[in-house]
Amino acid sequence: MRVRMILVAAGAALTLACGPAPAPAPSDGLPRYREDVELLKANVQVVELADDDGARVAIVPVFQGRVMTSTATGPDGWSLGWINGELITSWETLAHINPYGGEDRFWLGPEGGQYAVFFEKGAPFDLEHWQTPPLIDTEPFELMAASASRAVFRRRASLANYSGFVFDLQIDRTVRLLGEGDVRSSFRVDVPDGVDFVAFESENRLTNTGEKPWEKETGLLSIWILGMFPPSEGATVVIPFIPGPEEDLGPVVNDAYFGKVPADRLIVGTERLFFRADGQYRSKIGLSPSRATSVCGSYDPERGVLTLVEFTIPLEAHHYVNSMWEIQDEPYAGDVVNSYNDGPPEPGAKPMGPFYELESSSPALELGPGESYVHVHRTAHFQGSEEALDPIARAALGVGIAEIKAAFGD
Question: How far is Cα 231 from Cα 405, in angstroms, rounded to an integer?
Fold first, then answer.
């Protein structure tokens, strides 16, 4: 695979090893990668990774080195990440959170609880007092290096939690474009003829740069990677889980984040669950370490795109930060994998996107001075006919495309 890198800043571009431009895609009203990248580079610096088969990945350093979007079929292919063009072009800074979009962004947990990093000490756990730390919202990461297939970012900072403990830390983040061999080894799937794909990974290292150890008694951090994707009427999230009785493994799914998810939006089977990703109903689910596997995914029939996410999940890890908005009895009984479906926060209100998310978290990190932990989060999009995508879905998620489409009777 011959790759190329494009650095874009306010419309200026340097291109290495360029290949032929792909043929234009048919007009169907869906966002194109070219359109989204042109919007980005008119406002911010963009680092773009690409290969000669049409795979492209657009990364923005000022947005914490996040992968904003990607495509499997060249500039005129579909834009596979969700981008908030209205906010980016407005140059406004919003209260609480600036949802710029992006299909792989770096966050830190926990969100709520006595060790929260989204609430100031003593603040009530409500939306008015919820605040995304600027470190992971509005402050840039430094671009340290870029090559043909990767970009490297760094950020040093201090961050206080709800209980008053101050974390001195360094974030090192590397985004890599993945080839077919990487997809085979990471996702354990083959790419059939007739299927286009784009795949990338973020390697996220968190280091304790302070003089104090990070301990459970004063609160721990976790690496939290979130991917935002465009919803559609028939889009469905699929999350495999470890089967077994609740008395041994606990509940299969936590659906209490924003109130219980209705039965017509969440179906829990014997080994996997289905969750609507239509951007029409605000809801969130999560799986604990006793239930989570290292993979989740989604299928969007409107675009014919199967998305897989694979991530680090150490077998010996049992403690994950709890992000529920309350003082918690079990602050380390949190979730490993989450999915969020956007929608109006209340009747008649405007949704944040809409979009849906696939998320993964590292364990709660007990790090001594100078110690580090690395969490890897991989994303792959496969584009093709239902027949061609079916073996990929079965190999990775244990279920075929037809069954995913039929989960909610669509």
Answer: 14
